[in-house]
Amino acid sequence: MTENQLILHQYDISPFSQKAQKMMGLKGLDWLSVEMPLIAPKPDVEALTGGYRGTPVLQVGADVFIDNWMIARALDSYARVAPLNPRGPLEAAAVYAWCERLFIPLLHSAFATYKSQWEPDFLADRKRVFPDVDFDSLYIADPDRRSQVSAFLGEAAAQLGRGAPFLGGETPDSGDVHVWGMVWMIYSALPDLVPLVERYEELTRWHVRMEALGRGQRTDVGFQVAWDALRDGGFQPLPETPMEEPLRDWLGATVAVSAGSADRGVARGRFIAVDQHQVVIATTPLDGVEAHVWFPRFGYHVGLAS
């Protein structure tokens, strides 16, 4: 994969984009940033992915990786240095899921803090993306929500209190990245929660170490660079679909892939591979030009397209 450049479709205010940037920093990688619109429609990235519009999206040639779970796997394949998932897939998945749960009270805190300041179009978009959230009932100083955040942060501090500089030991990995992304969100947007971080010395010292790792070498480019990379780039080998895979009979059919946790759009494409790690669909973003779009099995749903 190293003959292709890394292109990250993202926007900087997203903690999930920040996580992907920090992965670049851990590995010391050069990468290109394509600015994604904050709200729908996002016609270019939706064409590239088959309809998914969440952030971030990593493009490597004609391969497109959705969600930081797949981005970490793709970056480990791209550059073997500083592996992001050295502790094995199950432990990596557990930390990933733990941070997804931590994101919920942080998200609600952000809505409570800023909903009255947002432009109507932005607020309407966020209500559409998160249809299960009752925006009208959220308020900043919710004791239960603050207690939840404190409990999550306390567990991270307890892990660091075991004596290692990073959550997994002597070197940082994706677990540190996922937790750091949530702490980054607090420091950058949720000032009322900062004291909950700074009550833990282990956590604040770890945060300084994570910040010092940087975000790699970034170059901002326009979407035309992505289209050129799509036309000129190749594909990485597809995973082998196991004979016992329940979705195997759908190979070759048009499927719809969606995230279970929020409305980030539905991607439609030809189903070309699936295993326990990923689902891969083929899309046609440009006439006669195909992309392979990689989704995690974790947290995403697949169905036959109507």
Basic shape: globular
Can you summarize the main beta sheet?
A: 10 strands, mixed
Count every beta strand, where a strand is a DSSP E run of 2 or more residues: 10
Radius of gyration, in angstroms, nearest whole number:
19 Å
CATH domain class name of the domain at 89-212:
Mainly Alpha
User: Low-confidence stretches at least 5 residues in length (pLDDT < 50)?
Assistant: none
Please state how the strands of the largest beta sheet are arranged side by side.
5-2-1-3-4-9-8-7-6-10
Architecture per CATH nomenclature, i.e. the level-2 architecture of the domain at 89-212: Up-down Bundle
Return the string of H and E elements: EHEHEEHHHHHHHEHEEEEE
CATH topology assignment of the domain at 89-212 = Glutathione S-transferase Yfyf (Class Pi), Chain A, domain 2
**How much of the residues is beta strand, in percent?**
15-25%
Helix content: 40-55%
How would you describe what is shown here?
By secondary structure, the chain is of the alpha/beta class. The protein has a domain at 89-212: Glutathione S-transferase Yfyf (Class Pi), Chain A, domain 2, CATH 1.20.1050. Helices cover 42% and strands 20% of the residues. The chain has a 10-stranded mixed beta sheet with strand order 5-2-1-3-4-9-8-7-6-10, with helices on both faces. The chain is globular.
Explain briefly what this protein structure is:
This protein has 10 helices and 10 strands.
List the topology elements.
Elements lengths: L5 E5 L4 H13 L2 E6 L7 H7 L7 E4 L2 E4 H12 L10 H26 L5 H10 L13 H18 L13 H16 L4 H5 L2 H12 L4 E5 L1 H10 L21 E6 L7 E8 L3 E9 L2 E8 L3 E5 L2
Parallel strand pairs: 1-2, 2-5, 4-9
Antiparallel strand pairs: 1-3, 3-4, 6-7, 6-10, 7-8, 8-9
Helix pairs in contact: 1-3, 1-7, 4-6, 4-7, 6-9
